[in-house]
Amino acid sequence: MAKDSEPLFSSKNLKLLTDPLNNENPITVQVLGICSALAITVKLKPAIVMTLSVMVVLAVSNVVISALRKSIPPRIRIIVQLVVIATMVILVDQFLKAFAYDVSKQLSVFVGLIITNCIIMGRLEAFAMANKPWPSFLDGIGNASGYGIILIIVAFFRELLGSGTLLGYPVLEKTGLYNIGYENNGLMILPPMALITIGIIIWVQRAKNRSLIEE
Amino acid sequence: MANLFDIFIKSIFIDNMVFAYFLGMCSFLAVSKTVKTSVGLGTAVIFVMTITVPVNYLLENYLLKAGALSWLGPQFADLNLDFLSFIIFIAVIASMVQLVEMIIEKYSPTLYTTLGIFLPLIAVNCAILGGSLFMQERDYRTVWEATSFGLGSGIGWFLAIVGMAAIREKIRYSNVPKPLKGLGITFIVTGLMGIAFMSFMGIKL
User: Fold this and answer.
1) Does residue A186 sit at the B interface (CB-CB below 8 Å)?
2) CB under 8 Å to A82, separation ≥6 — which residues?
3) Over the stretch B120-168, which tens digit does the pLDDT of each residue have?
4) Residue contact B187–A202, C-beta within 8 A
5) B122 near B48, Cβ under 8 Å?
6) Using the beta-carbon criterion (under 8 Å), do A214 and B94 form an inter-chain contact?
7) Prediction ipTM score
8) pLDDT, tens digit (0-9, with 9 covering 90-100), for B72-104
9) B26–A78 CB contact, under 8 Å
């Protein structure tokens, strides 16, 4: 059995885990999953919860689809994928409602929208349908972290500049910035600033990594 | 009647799917390169949205909600199938898209060829599922309210993508910093359009 000789964390598999963090980032390079990503980045906490939820859904449905990939008839694969994803999302949603009710209220419809998050469909189509379960699992974790990193960077700046807190802790108040006339930037809380922040992240990333520039 | 109109206007401008909730962003960014294709996709979204929101409204109220099954008999009155709503909604959307595709193919082949690949893609457009989930969250009272919400949201999405495509067609000739070209500038323009749309928030309805 030659195919079993590959170690669990070979360099090829590690690449699956690290590539989505930068060169293959789902948000800034593949342009996937922006829909549900932006509206929940006002505060850091929902962004972290969202990242974890997407990670669970993506990793598990990648494994399931990859395990079933030989028995799914190609004509109905979209429906099969949607059913697997929707089942996972229902589990995550019920879990959040039971153990983190306030966060689940803040996320409102966006937990449900993980179903149509293009990252998940995209990775199932592009990766899990053609690869073995273990690489698919790593691919899921990698892509969800790539998604999460952008989410957390955006949420970090929006919460810090917009409300002067981090995870609800009043960071700026402690530094005494308010006493010398600093004020929170209300614009950062508004939805459009999430888009502009991501635009700037893309700018910085592409300025550092010239190979990503579009012609 | 006035109430229906309020919901309609509100869902087009104030609660715009793209600029207020970032729904349907993936196809919004991917398909807004030319005005022609974006008109095609926008029309298809209006179409599907106007059908799926009321259908899901009826399912929600006569099948899923707590006590919704009481029309079957008193023993079903305390059933709550709410947790199934995601899977039901997405199934309705996927099958509606399929149905709409077949109907258009039969009765209007010209429209069918214009829409082309975009029709099946709508099944995974977050704006459509988002419309149904917002309908569920906001508890509209009648099916007409849900319909006017669906139609309005669809039109709002249409306006957004056509406007974006028009800007992108022009921006191709301007001198954008290299790393910002393509995706980066599109994000920033969308953000600026969002700020412009926020001025509608002052409207009281």
Assistant:
1) no
2) A115, B90, B91, B94, B123, B124
3) 767 777 788 888 888 888 888 888 899 999 999 999 999 999 999 999 8
4) yes
5) yes
6) no
7) 0.76
8) 777 777 777 777 888 888 888 888 887 877 887
9) no
Count: domains in chain B: 1
Domain coordinates of chain A in residue numbers?
31-214
Tokens of A190: 């508004």
Beta partners for residue A169, in sequence order = A166
CA of B80, closest CA in chain A: separation in Å?
A: 14
Nearest chain B residue (CA) to A193: B191
Contact A179, A169 (CB under 8 A): no
Domain holding B95, by residue range, is: 2-202
Cβ-defined contact of B191 to A86 (cutoff 8 Å) = no
Among candidate residues B124, B33, B186, B29, the one with its CA nearest the CA of residue A31: B29
- Dump pLDDT digits (tens) for A103-162: 888 777 778 778 877 788 888 888 888 888 888 888 888 888 888 888 888 888 888 888
The pTM is what?
A: 0.80
Residues 6+ apart with CB under 8 A from A206: A212, A213, B178, B179, B180, B184
Are the C-beta atoms of residues A199 and B185 closer than 8 Å to each other? yes
Is B89 within 8 Å of B129 (Cβ atoms)? yes
